[in-house]
Amino acid sequence: MRREILKYLERNSKINLQELAVLLGSDEVMIANEIAQMEKEKIICGYHTLIDWEKTGEEQVVALIEVKVTPQRNQGFDRIAERIYNYPEVNAVYLISGGYDFLITLKARTLKEVSEFVSGKLAPLDAVLSTATHFVLKKYKDHGAVLVAKTESERMLVTP
Question: If one looks up domain 53-139 in CATH, what number appears?
Answer without folding.
Answer: 3.30.70.920
